[in-house]
Fold this sequence. Notes:
This protein is of the alpha/beta class. Helix content is 19%, strand content 20%. The chain has helices at 28-35, 72-76, 148-154, 163-173, 189-194, 211-217, 242-250, 262-265; strands at 43-45, 65-70, 88-92, 100-102, 122-123, 126-127, 138-146, 160-161, 182-186, 205-206, 221-224, 254-257, 271-276, 286-288, 292-294. The strands form 4 sheets. The chain has a 9-stranded mixed β-sheet with strand order 1-15-13-7-9-11-12-4-14. Strands 2-3 form a two-stranded antiparallel sheet. The longest helix is centred in the middle third of the chain and has 11 residues, at 163-173. It is globular and about 65 Å long. The two termini are 33 Å apart. The structure holds acetylphosphate (UVW).
Amino acid sequence: MEKESDPSNNWGRWGDDDERGALNLITADAVLRAVSTVRTGTALTLAVPLRAGEGPIFEGRAPLQHFMTRHGGDYAAGLKEKGFGFADDYVLVATHGTTHIDALAHVWREGAMWNGHSSNLVTSIGARKCGIENVGAIVTRAVLVDFADQYEASGDPRHAIDVDDLSAAVAATGIDVMPGDALLVRTGWVRAWRSQRAQVTAWPGLAPNCAEWINEAGFALVGADNIAVELGPSPRENDAAPLHARLVRDFGIYLVELLDLEAIAAQGRSSFLLSIAPMPLVGGVGSPVNPIAVL
Length: 295
Ligand code: UVW
């Protein structure tokens, strides 16, 4: 049962022990609303390809490594199997090092993460509260807004999308946003990065003043084709990630980063079914994902 809302945060709204935050808004009705948007049955991935040694990836995180542990060379060297051959491989990937979802245990401020859980519960052996395993399967309706051309036209590597831009773009879709919907924001950064017109040191994104509006609209998650959903580096001195702090820690709203929104933008659809299934990595603070849009 939901408690009365507190405009300063959503702590306690889904119970004092809650570890799932705004995903509680994705009810069976929200899933059925997503299903009702399906028209053609076309399915698209929203993930950037995983390539060994390549990004895009935030500075300080190591790119993915891919190791082949069984391949044709073993057989060429004389390895025998009974009538067949096979290949095996391993990947070493930062959970936030490609298209990914942040767990609620990813961020905190003043010693408290989502719902007031202590940041001391996140240790070198993993998160004892709010780990990524709490997410489960996400199926909901996505609302897509597109600022890619505005970013290109601005010439500003840190083009800011503020609350007026965002609310006007969502209103222009004509969609009546409902609790549990997902907001997807195409900033244009992945397109620019791919054609070597952008760096991982600066990216366009949502301004800090978007947080309260996103929460009041009822979005359960926000995804974007940039490093951090929010504008980076932060426009606020001494506040490295203001939108992470408000959305993830205070409101329990999930962030999905480094999406590839090029193919879905080309479809000209503002709403569709979105499915995201993080790895059930117990104690993980994020997970690579391959989000699927169904049109
Ligand atoms: C950054 O904040 C840079 O990204 P993420 O939220 O994945 O950690």
